[in-house]
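Incident log entry.

Two folding requests arrived from the same account within the same minute. Monitoring flagged them as a possible duplicate submission, but the sequences differ. Recording both here for audit purposes.

Request one:
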Amino acid sequence: MDIVNEILEREQQELAKYKPITVEKLLEVQNDLGLLLCTDVNDLAEDRLKSDCDDYLLNLTRDNVQLLLNDVWQQPTESVEESVLAKLPAPVHLLPRERKVPDPKPLTKWQKFAQEKGIKKKPRMQKTYDDVQDKWVPTYGYKRAAAEKERDWVLEVPGNADPMEDQFQKKKELKKERVAKNELQRMRNVARAQKLKIPRVGITNPAAASSKELLTAATVAKASTASVGKFQDKLPKDKKARGLGVKELIPGVKRKASHLEPETKRNLDVVESVLKKRPKVDVEKAISLQKRDDRERRDAEQAESKPKRSKKGKSQFKSKGMKKPRGGKGQRNPNKRTLGRKRR
């Protein structure tokens, strides 16, 4: 009996760890099974929030989750790979989005064609068997190029080709052309998706080109020379596309192109600009300069006619043998005061 009591007590202790699945609420909670959302409208106990906040919120959350799971298991179920799944209904609440719903990605030209013809894309294998190398090689990726280089270490020259032509270089050029063609097609798909007008490149699709587009392409092609089509031969009844000027034909040009003007007009403009720079004759200024020269010449002649003193301060009288007159024989200046003793 003691062993049976111990077993029963142990089971009761284990069952005490787990709470019952039945939860009683004053007001029923509102469950949105589509979003697995439980909304509890009951008031919170303020005294328990102040005394034991963590345990109170933990027990409250456990009870609400238990009520939500009780409603989930009441829904119809199905078994999938030894698992029981519940079929949830559509959600009731509308959750706000941070951003708008993305627009569906527009189809490319090939995807639209494949959809119309019913062509389905087959999954590509990561590796394919190569009979030449007798091994499995990658179907795509950077290792594919290394496998092709190892396989095509020698290339056969066709019978109608030039024997001196480099087949490896020709293969590289063909690959560059394919890459450029794919990039052009990708840019056209992007422009078509954004409803943008494809820029003119001088080449249009003959299957979908109109007469206006062909005329525009022909005009652009003629202007794609160094002289902007000045020396291009004109065909009889040749028309020029409307709305195409220098700014449209020559990208980046904002002013009038001087090389498009006639040569005679340009030469006349150069001659006129040179003649405008010729200096004008000022008569009054010329007369004043002439008078000043005459005055300077007369002053120079008068200065030469006057007696000159020597470098030592002696006059010309001594050089010519004449005596210098003695001082004091002439009249004195009464206003000039003389110093010293007056002689009698």
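Request two (distinct sequence, not a duplicate):
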Amino acid sequence: MGTGSQARVLESPSDRLILETAMSGRNQTIITEFLLLGLPIEPEQKNLFYALFLAMYLTTVLGNLLIIVLIHLDSHLHTPMYLFLSNLSFSDLCFSSVTMPKLLQNMQSQVPSIPYAGCLAQMYFFLFFADLESFLLVAMAYDRYVAICCPLHYTTIMSPKLCVSLVLLSWVLTTLHALLHTLLMARLCFCADNKIPHFFCDISALLKLSCCDTQVNDLVIFIVGGLIVVIPFLLIIMSYTRIVSSILKVTSARGICKAFSTCGSHLSVVSLFYGTIIGLYFCPTAGNSIVKETVMAVMYTVVTPMLNPFIYSLRNRDMKGALGRVFYKKIFSFCI
């Protein structure tokens, strides 16, 4: 009699719903933090790599800050090219700061965790500054195109209004793109596995951990994310195709050298930035391992922002001249 009544009670739709909810609650756990597994480094080598990455991060911060300060202080550098360069240096500084401090902290921590909200924030700012760098490289390529292919109309075309508009457009587009991916990620559920085999909250790594349907996220990444990378890269290629064709028409060897020196720094940065991204995301191989992907991610998140200040300062006569003028003024005023 008791068994029959119990069976009838469980047959009630409301009781079945309560039972299913209780069972699902026991089988699922709400993720409040993720564990960043970090770099594949042996324990005895951890202190060595910590010192190396700390030195690289400090070099990145100081080098990019130096470029920003020089452009701000030297009136000779108040031109469209250096407006874009100062924004690029700021983007590099922030891009590295999104991942490096947390990586350094986790290398010294027994539990390399990051809160759920902190992980989403890191993903947002990583996408934001990566996209911003991409758009700024396009603006710099267009500036070089106008300077070499339309030198007589340079000041008219590259007006202060256009330059500021290009920078603002870059900031707005990157904000919207990063926000779109972050909101789509926030709607996903994470049930049990919270271990990220990376040193930061990479969007692809998070999607692999989700326990619900990610088709919308994958579609948006394929369409919007692809456009954000492919279109700027194609625009840069088109600009430099026109630049090279114009340079080859110059009969003077001195003119050719001057034109190539003007574009050399920018081309170096473009090659470093897009080379690693295309190699990692657009040319995957069957043998791609977590170690290989991590090393390539280190290249464009750590190495490239560190090298950019050296590329621009060592290969750019304007930057070297500005460095001499600023330090000369400081020393002269100190002596007086």
